[in-house]
Write a structure and sequence with these properties.
- The structure holds 2 protein chains of 2 kinds.
- Chain A is mainly α.
- Helices cover 76% and strands 0% of the residues of chain A.
- About 4% of the residues of chain A have low confidence.
- By secondary structure, chain B is mainly alpha-helical.
- Chain B has a two-stranded antiparallel sheet.
- In chain B, helix 1 crosses helix 2 and helix 6 crosses helix 9.
- Chain B is rod-shaped and about 95 Å long.
- The chains are: A mainly alpha, B mainly alpha.
- The interface between A and B is large, with 46 and 39 residues.
Chain lengths: 176, 192
């Protein structure tokens, strides 16, 4: 305890950031890959999230950074990315380009039926519904926790999950 | 007769059932709505159907084996601050020693030659180019800040006739852009 009190605040911030990275990097990268459909982009976005967490800790080493905060930052980063991607798709120059589905970047052994069905459905969903579905049924948060992360109500999360489930059901029936 | 409000309520109930958060009263209410609303019955499905569909993301989560490749991070995890400084100081010392060694063959009585890099604008351009170097494919900036480790790098420093460094070029990067720039800045400040 004495050592902790005597420690340099920058050292404390670094140590806390390190533990955050070690504990959440894989989980967050997986969540982001599902959100954006691309592993490289997911890694870049998770970098942004951890970097902003690290900067916040540098500014205030005592600041509490929870898993919820990280997922909120990750969701916002993913939604911003998807919005930019959507704008790029609307540009006339891009009209003739056959934009590959995100699944084409996945390795063959990752393309199990469940994985493909889920990703196909996620690609058709608005980002807010994807986030609600993933945070609850994929990451494992309750609707109240997901609502806190997404800045909405638990009822709204349940409604988004229901709408996402409707698309998922359609995809599953089409596949079979 | 069901209203749009009932259907919206049914969506929330279906969501609660999907997340395993619905109690028996809510389940009964959902069943009653489905019995009265054929559209919701077709679009949302019964409780078993909801549970079947919602098993998919949970199964995908359990079966997920993809993980980012973090070997490069773990290789340099938990550095010692003293080692970092030793590496930086060592690199600077080697740099200074190398520059002096290359200058030894110049006779003291020789007529001073024009500077290797005489134009200050050239030097400025070199420094500007250094600052706009293309970064490695992924900088892993967060990890490099958190897990900043030891590494080696090679620099080429041009020195004019007065012993003042005019240009610093990175021949082999340490892999950390911030570290590269710091060492280059230090090399440009030193007098040789």
């Amino acid at each position: 305890m004495e050592a902790l009190i005597a420690a340099d605040p920058a050292e404390i911030a670094r140590a806390r950031a390190e533990s955050l990275v070690l504990e959440y990097q894989v989980k967050l990268a997986r969540y982001l890959r599902r959100m954006v459909g691309d592993a490289e982009v997911a890694l870049d976005l998770s970098q942004e999230v951890f970097l902003s967490a690290f900067r916040m800790l540098q500014a205030d080493p005592k600041r509490e950074i929870t898993a919820g905060w990280l997922y909120r930052a990750a969701t916002n980063a993913a939604i911003s990315f998807l919005r930019r991607k959507k704008i790029l798709r609307m540009l006339p120059l891009d009209r003739e380009v056959d934009r590959p589905s995100s699944l084409r970047t996945w390795s063959v052994d990752e393309r199990s039926a469940t994985s493909v069905d889920l990703q196909t459905a996620l690609e058709q969903l608005p980002a807010a519904q994807s986030a609600a579905l993933l945070l609850t049924s994929y990451v494992g948060y309750s609707s109240a926790e997901a609502a806190e992360i997404l800045g909405t109500t638990a009822d709204a999360v349940r409604q988004r999950v229901c709408r996402a489930m409707r698309v998922l059901r359609t995809v599953m029936s089409e596949e079979r | 007769m069901t209203t749009q409000k009932d259907c919206a309520q049914a969506e929330m109930l279906a969501g609660a059932i999907a997340l395993g958060e619905a109690n028996e009263v809510q389940r009964n209410s959902y069943r009653a709505h489905l019995a009265a609303c054929p559209r919701c019955c077709a679009e949302l499905g019964g409780e078993h159907e909801i549970e079947r569909v919602m098993a998919l993301p949970a199964d995908a989560s359990k079966a997920e084996h993809w993980a980012p490749d973090l070997r490069h991070v773990h290789r340099q995890a938990r550095p010692q601050r003293a080692l970092q400084w030793a590496a930086v100081l060592g690199a600077i010392a080697m740099l200074i020693f190398g520059v002096r060694a290359t200058q030894k063959h110049v006779p003291v009585t020789a007529v001073p030659r024009p500077p290797v890099v005489a134009s200050s604008s050239q030097a400025e351009r070199a420094v500007a180019a250094l600052n706009t170097q293309t970064a490695p494919q992924r900088e892993h900036q967060a990890e490099s800040l958190v897990f900043a480790g030891t590494s080696t790098m090679r620099l080429d420093v041009s020195v004019d006739g007065r012993g003042l460094p005019k240009r610093c070029t990175i021949i082999k990067s340490s892999g950390d852009r911030a570290l590269d720039q710091a060492v280059c800045r230090a090399a440009l400040k030193a007098k040789h």
